[in-house]
Design brief:
two-stranded antiparallel sheet, alpha+beta, 2 domains, 170 residues, Jelly Rolls
């Protein structure tokens, strides 16, 4: 009887261990290498450079954070933004959709929304997206791996154009 309990316990431990490894591996696959180096290795807040300006980031890299976004916040500073990270594999509408669309549900202030491809190139810009535009949604027809939300007017002020590149900072 005791041997059977030990075998069952060992099997449960192995299953749990394999499950944890699978979840950790999956999470790492969904994060950009530069983001990982920035936040997890250096212990600093992630940032990027766009249109010659450095933006400090809040990162939304899971379904809960992506669905919440900036909803309910009262504003952003010009050097702040939220970066939405989507799965390179595609798939679910919330985390893996390669053509993510955004709306202004529960937003309290206007923003510029910038879509980036896997090469960190700007592929679409929605300038001055306003809370009152809800339930309209915005997005490109092309595939995007990242979406950056910044203060309204940022794109115009810094002459950001489709085709410009973004650089993750370490």
């Amino acid at each position: 009887m005791q041997k059977k309990n030990i075998k069952n316990f060992a099997l449960i431990v192995v299953v749990i261990f394999i499950s944890i490894l699978a979840l950790v591996g999956r999470k790492i696959d969904h994060l950009n290498e530069a983001y990982m180096r920035s936040e997890y290795i250096n212990g600093t807040s992630p940032s990027l450079k766009i249109a010659g300006k450095i933006i400090m980031l809040d990162v939304a890299d899971n379904d809960i954070l992506r669905s919440r976004g900036l909803s309910g916040r009262v504003g952003l500073q010009e050097d702040q933004g939220m970066l939405f990270v989507f799965s390179a594999q595609g798939g679910s509408a919330s985390g893996g959709d390669r053509t993510p669309r955004f709306w202004m549900k529960d937003m309290l202030f206007p923003i510029d929304i910038i879509w980036l491809d896997e090469n960190l190139k700007v592929i679409y810009i929605k300038k001055d997206a306003r809370p009152e535009s809800y339930p309209e949604s915005f997005g490109p027809d092309a595939e995007a791996l990242y979406v950056l939300e910044v203060t309204a007017g940022f794109s115009e002020k810094h002459n950001l154009q489709v085709g410009d590149r973004v650089e993750f900072l370490y």
